Amino acid sequence: MEELKAAGKVVLWVIAAMAGARFVASRTKPGRLRFLFLLPVVCLLPFLPMHFSTIHLRSISAFFLAWLALFKLFLLSAGSGPLSADLPFFTFLASATLPVKLVHQKSPQKPKNPTTTSLFLPSAAKAALLSVLISCYRFKDTIHPYLLLSIYSIHVYLALDLVLATAAVVASLLLPRGLQLEPQFDAPYLSTSLTDFWGRRWNIMVSAILRPSVYLPVRNRCGRPAGVLATFFVSGLMHEFMFWYLTLAPPTGEVTAFFAIHAVCVVAEAVARRLGWRLPAPVATPLTLGFVAATGFWLFFPPILRSRTDEAVLTECTAVMSFPEAAVTKILEWGRLT
Length: 338
What we know:
mainly alpha, 3 domains, 13 helices, 2 strands, acyltransferase, Wax_synthase_dom
């Protein structure tokens, strides 16, 4: 109940903040003055996730508000990015606060509803698989540590995909006709390189935000390698920020190191491609996924494990899964009494 009250407060604050941001954008030109007037909203957003006590709601809202929405407002202050005062308010609200990218449909035909088969069936399958994984955690003490980390990796992918799919459904309710949503993932398990994994397949919305806000400005001034390094460095810092919401523990720099290593490797891949060095997909895919997993086990998961955040997350997941069963039991008991 407390989390529902917190959610209500956060939603009201977000609506008010985005109404103010849209009003500022409609009355000011891009530049320092617009940024100055947007500053109260920019300062407010990182505090809103702290209204939640559960890890899932706190971390998800932090990703939506303290990263994506924040960067979209930075772009709005410069007159670029997906936000514009010309957008209808609810479209502005959805685009600002949800991890979606709007695509104008050229055909006059009605766009596909993301709540139909194209979205529901894959999401249902992933939800079922996630439920199976969560059920396996009761045996976690008997599972090999590296196998357990592999299960955690799959858990992260499935959970993120389901959260973003849910956000897409919510956004679709706020969007007018003629606008569609881009997918958030594109089969990352088929990646043939780190460039392919990070740039085109994994959490596409983050790439879409970091490209205009970090990569392009740095690349135009200092070249492509500098743009890649800067983008991964900023991504690492933002992940450290997100990990703070997740663990409530001081940053360790390990996640930033994870992205720094991947940045250097992406630059090295570009050099290799220019030299004509390419691996066939059957070889490149397992090497890519193996490298992501190995560096993740080394640098990405330790902050979560040390703070025992993984155990808290599993407790919340188990509680959510047991809720329908408990509800059905209560209904059956009530039926017997009546």
